[in-house]
């Protein structure tokens, strides 16, 4: 049972008129599903309720149609007809005694209104401040607009209550919410009673909260999510100003929700931010108020959580990503199962679901957002099918996840791994600069597999088709990973690029195996995720003179979706890497490369000693092909199925591999789904008044 030193995390805490059953507080987080996938999102929140969270919030909910952030998919509460979908979510949140919260967002200077075509409204007329630099400006709110906006907040709160929510969170952090826009001198340059002094900039939040209190009384609690430090220069809302603001407005909301000023800072990946990274910005704020305080910091360790409470820093432990990686985190602490907590690795793949308007994934928890779509539960597997055993070849993230999920279904599982150490690519990549936390993907599964009697791991066991046919396993899962290409094939070159004999060409695999180029090194990054940037960082540490060339307009272009692109660029500049954007490499000679401008095609030579080609990867599918070639022998060998999964099937990020492993395990022995999708989906209800 629970270790008494964690008892403090299970104390009930008052939030205004309500009481949360414990201190585990799932702060609002996006999921890429939002209004498009309401049942998927509701089921995901319901799993958190089951996992023991005391407070559970929605993602940001656009509270009025005059402010929205299309193309990003969040929630909407514009009319009464939006209530039923939100009620579905609140009901799930409350099933196990959690308080259900809704985050009301008015995006102001952050909402381009591409869908509603309304003119955006903001404290001051300025260009819209989106990631995408939309060519749209907001007009300044007039006094009568402000009166309207106050009324809209009251209406949205009443609708939230009708939808079953207990708490509302007024959004004023991450640069996304109007409360921050009013508080910051960068976005509020008004000369009336809403601008200028901090007292004036605070007026809007005071008025909205007073209006809401008058409207809903004690039937709901009001939380205010404010920016800890806007960190956008001298005009930004600073930590010192925040402290003044809270001191001046001690008991304005029923709870202060403290989050960083930009989303990149708040949800920093483990490559750049440690657990509890916001501690210094939060410390001492609790003494300025009588109300409870929640803060975040990718908390996965219950000891750190206890320290945050005992030191008087926080009353509630706010978690977004840790609650995604393990929705059962509170339950596991409660039951004394600390080692079973599936810790977030801080890769920010979950955020890419929002950034790409698709649907979120989690590297550690492949069931995230599949709770309804596929009926996957993070803690419970479907019962075993007809067959009884599986040989998993390869112990990378795909093989390990497959093995762990299979043994929980009740299959006897053997894992064969060619190398001495299990973990595949994760074992190699965790040694790269900044990626050590990613090792949790392996550590967690290795520990879990060690607790099971029905799994054997065979290390240093490179298998071929003949050996597999001899073993007599019924199901063969090939998860043999991938190899970085040396021939430059990726996006610029769809066939091998010209490489002169004698040219010193390295791949990421070479570097991870310890074969390092020296002297003047060109990294040609046509992969565009983290690898090129990480290797540049690695090589500067070994004394190489590094130039990173990429055809993309950004270093590690795709990491804009993981919110770390800016930090990567800054780190490389500081490490002395020369960055060449919008240029490709057309040919590699022994002593130089030829680069080309992606717009004009103009070429120029660049001298170097060696080149690291970060191109595509090739799936290691030879073993699978060999087995398929011997299909005639399967029946005699007792083989019922052979499947290729993970990077060996189609290389992708680690999250794709854990998903593939989990899916393989879930679907083993299941009837074929035919040509239909393998997941449930919702479609928009057609208008009843057609043709209208
Ligand atoms: P994924 O990301 O798909 O899980 P990885 O590259 O991380 O793939 O892992 C694949 C693992 O499979 C590596 O550890 C590799 O050593 C192992 N492997 C590859 N071929 C064989 C084989 N023939 N027999 C046993 N293990 C193999
Ligand atoms: Fe954590 Fe990565 Fe999962 Fe997001 S995707 S919750 S950062 S492990």
From TrEMBL:
The keyword Iron applies. Keywords: Flavoprotein, FMN, Iron, Iron-sulfur, Metal-binding, Oxidoreductase. Residues 9-338 form the NADH:flavin oxidoreductase/NADH oxidase N-terminal domain. Transmembrane segments: none annotated. It comes from the Bacteria. InterPro entries: Aldolase_TIM, FAD/NAD-bd_sf, NADH:flavin_oxidoreductase, OxRdtase_FMN_N, TMADH/DMDH/HD_second_a-b, TMADH/DMDH_FMN-bd. Its cofactor is [4Fe-4S] cluster; FMN. Residues 507-583 form the TMADH/DMDH/HD second alpha/beta domain. In the N-terminal section; belongs to the NADH:flavin oxidoreductase/NADH oxidase family. This is NAD(P)-binding protein. It comes from Ruegeria marisflavi.
